[in-house]
Each structure stands twice: as C-alpha cells, then as structure tokens.
Specification:
The complex is a heterodimer of chains A (about 80) and B (about 350). Chain A has about 80 residues and is of the alpha+beta class. Chain A is about 35% helix and about 25% strand. Chain A has a four-stranded mixed β-sheet. In chain A, helix 1 links the parallel strand 1 and strand 2. The radius of gyration of chain B is 23 Å and the shape is flat. Classes of the chains: A alpha+beta (about 80), B mainly alpha (about 350). Chains A and B meet through helix 2 of A and helix 6, helix 8 and helix 13 of B.
Chain lengths: ~80, ~350
C-alpha cells in the first residue's frame, strides 16, 4: 500500500541559542510567510543538543520540513521569499 | 512622482550586482579620492565655526572632524572587504582545511583563519562542536576560538586609524601569538576527556565542503550586508571614541596614567588583565579607553593586554562555552589565555 502525507503546512524551525539575530530571523520568516499567505508551523529550537543534531556550524539556522536551508547570519529577504514561492 | 523616482533609483541600486567588477573599480577610485579630501575638509569646517584654530578647542574640533569621517570610511572599506573575504572562508571550508592536520602548523593556520572566517559569539558552540566532530584537534580548535573574536577587523581598523599601523600591527602580532601558543599548550595538555559527555558522544562527520558557487555579485552582497550589520551597530561607539580622543588631545594632563600603568610599575600588566576580565565590550567600545590610557602615559604593551583581556576573556562567552566544556577545561582555557596575554604584555613593554 502506498502511504503519503499531505503536507499543507510547512514545518519551519529556527535554530539558535537566543541572541538577537535568531529573534530577527524568526520575525522575518513570520512577516514574509504572512505576506505571502503561506501557513507555517514555526518553532524556535534553543536547546544546543537538538541544534547540533542538524550538523550546522553557525547560527541562526533555518530548517524547513527537515532540510537545512540556511545557516549563519540573518538570511537575506530575497532568500526567505524564495522559500515561500 | 514617487513611482517615477523609484523607476530611476532601483535600476541604479542594482548596478553593483549587474556589473560587479566595474562597481568595485569605481568604488575604490572614489574612496581614495574622498580620502584625500579629509584633511582639507576638516580644516574648512573648523574655519566656518566661531573658534580660534590655534586654541585647544580648535585643535580638538579639527581632530574630531578629521577623524570621524576618516574612521568611518576606513571601517566601511575594511568591513566591506572582509565581508567579501568571509564569503570564501566559511566555517565549513576552514574546518576542512584544519581537520586532521598536525598540531603546531595547524595552530598557526587556525589562528590566521580565525581572522578571516566569519564568527559571531553565539555561533561559538556550534562551530566548536562542528570542528571537534570533524576531527580538528582540540588545541587547534582553541587556537581558532581565541583568535576569532580577538583579532577582528574592527579592532584592527580602529587601532590603525587612530594610532597608526605600528600599534595595529602589534595587536595583530600579539593576538596571533597568544592564539597559537595558548591553543598549542591546551592541545598538549590532552584534555579531550574534559569535553561534556554529550559532545564526546556525538557522531563523527567528514569535513566536506559543499561548494555552492558564489559569484562576485553574491560576494558583493555579502560585503554590503556586513557593512550594514557592523557599521550600523558600531558607529555610535566610534563617535564617542573620537570625541573622547579629541577631548584628551586638548584637555587632560600628560602622564596622568603613568603612575598606574607605566612601564616602571611591574604589576601593571597582570592587574590590567585581571581588570579586563569582568569587563566586556565590543572592539569599538574599548577604543575610547585605550585612547585615554595611551595618551596619558600608560605603556603600550599594558594597554593592549588590557584590551585583549576585555575582548577575549569575556564572561558571556565562558557561560556559552560551559555547555560544551567541563569546568576544568574552561578554567584551563581561561588560565592559559590570561597567562599568554600577561606574558605578551610584558614582552612588548620590554621590547618597545
């Protein structure tokens, strides 16, 4: 039997230990997703052990549906918009 | 009307991206041209003001109007260049360059790479773990971790702009020496056992670089972003710093600090380093203090040691590192770096 999951809602995680850059990244993603009218489930991951399970070396980092799409610094607006095309 | 303005401006703003090489060449020429006008400009402004040029206020003002645009221009240029260089030296590439390399040489490379690899103190932990997982020796990772926050382009640029290339060069030499030697020493102590357990249990990774090909235009964007990030944050500190410097030039008596931090006072270096520990500011914020100390007779080695202690031995970073290092290792790290700074302070006081 074939199973498939209807993914309506993007699962987005922002990885970061809580400095301003991480907060700005979260806000940026929220603003743009609202602008584009895309439904997202946004989660802030601050636990360092969980963050390291994604194999990144700089924070803030962004994970969409399990895939790391960005790490290091606040992502450019154009980059964030491209995630919601 | 607004739409027409936008139609003009937006294409202009994208010129750097469409013609990156042309933009760079033009920008460099314009920058040098502007730089030549700085002294005449400052004199011109002071002329306009109802102040006697030969008076203390006159000199202080000329200093301020010359140094403010000078420092801002230098900082913008350096941050822009470093932003572009940083886009080459990602943490991933640095890690790949260092993984499994022999200590000694690797410490030297790590210290130098610390200067050009982008580093934000909140990334200290992911970066540290990333290095360790990929097989970068512990001591080498520490060399990087010491050099990255301390030997940064903002500190070097400001030192250069306000005190000349000798002071900047000295800071660079001191910083690299400490990073290399302290990192090497910690490596020799074989303290891998003192990493937090969950770090030791992390799966190893291979240090690979996934070369996402960045174009020159992308690197320009990285430069612009860095300028926007750094200069926008740091310019108030710079203004304060230069104003303080201007005031000192005119008004504070010479040799005021010599009694506390002069060369004859043997305990000046360790005390300064200790003083620096609870203090933390960014590189720009420490400059006014450095200026005041130097202008009033403090020895150069002592002052730079103090500056390094403030930047490199920071309580916030220690707290962050506590998540990955056991207390013994943190204390060792701290102790070795402090000892290194003190030693280098003494040496440079003796040599200069």
């Amino acid at each position: 039997m074939l199973f498939y999951k209807e993914i309506d809602v993007k699962e987005i995680k922002v990885l970061g230990t809580g400095c301003t850059k991480c907060q700005l990244t979260t806000r940026l993603i929220q603003d743009i997703s609202k602008e584009k009218g895309v439904d997202i489930a946004l989660e802030k991951v601050e636990d360092i052990e969980k963050i390291m399970s994604y194999n990144i070396m700089s924070t803030p980092a962004v994970v969409i549906d399990g895939l790391v799409v960005h790490s290091g610094g606040i992502p450019a607006k154009s980059k964030v918009e491209s995630w919601f095309q | 009307m607004q739409a027409q303005l936008k139609a003009l401006i937006i294409p202009l703003l994208s010129i750097p991206n469409r013609h990156p090489r042309l933009f760079l060449v033009t920008a460099v020429i314009i920058w040098f041209g502007l730089y030549q006008t700085l002294i005449p400009f400052s004199e011109y402004v002071v002329d306009l003001l109802p102040v006697d040029r030969a008076s203390r206020l006159g000199s202080a003002l000329q200093f301020f109007f010359y140094d403010t645009p000078k420092v801002l221009m230098l900082l913008t240029a350096v941050v822009m260049v470093m932003g572009m260089v940083n886009s080459y030296f990602t943490p991933e590439r640095t890690r790949a360059l260092l993984a499994g390399r022999r200590e000694g040489i690797a410490n030297g490379m790590a210290a130098c790479l610390g200067i050009v690899t982008p580093f934000c103190s909140c990334s200290a932990v992911p970066l540290f773990i990333g290095f360790v997982k990929a097989g970068v020796p512990l001591g080498v990772t520490f060399s990087f971790l010491i050099s990255a926050p301390m030997v940064n382009e903002v500190a070097l640029t400001l030192l250069f702009a306000l005190f000349g290339w000798k002071v900047a060069g000295l800071y660079l030499a001191m910083g690299l020496s400490i990073a290399i030697v302290a990192g090497w020493v910690i490596g020799q102590l074989r303290m891998e056992a003192h990493l937090e357990d969950w770090v030791k249990n992390m799966p190893k990774v291979r240090a690979e670089i996934n070369e996402s090909e960045l174009t020159l235009s992308d690197r320009l964007d990285a430069g612009f972003a860095a300028v926007h990030d750094i200069v926008a944050k740091v310019w108030p500190y710079i203004l304060v710093g230069i104003a303080v410097g201007a005031g000192i030039h005119g008004y504070v008596p010479e040799d005021f600090m010599a009694s506390f931090m002069g060369k004859e006072v043997w305990w000046a270096v360790p005390v300064s380093v200790l003083l620096g520990v609870p203090m933390y500011t960014n590189a720009a914020g420490i400059i006014p203090i450095v200026e005041a100390l130097l202008a009033k007779g403090a020895a150069l080695g002592t002052v730079l040691a103090f500056m390094m202690s403030v930047i490199a031995l920071s309580l916030p970073e220690m707290i962050i590192l506590r998540k990955v290092l056991k207390p013994t290792l943190i204390a060792t790290f701290f102790g070795v770096v402090a000892a290194g700074i003190i030693l280098v302070g003494y040496v440079f006081n003796a040599v200069l």
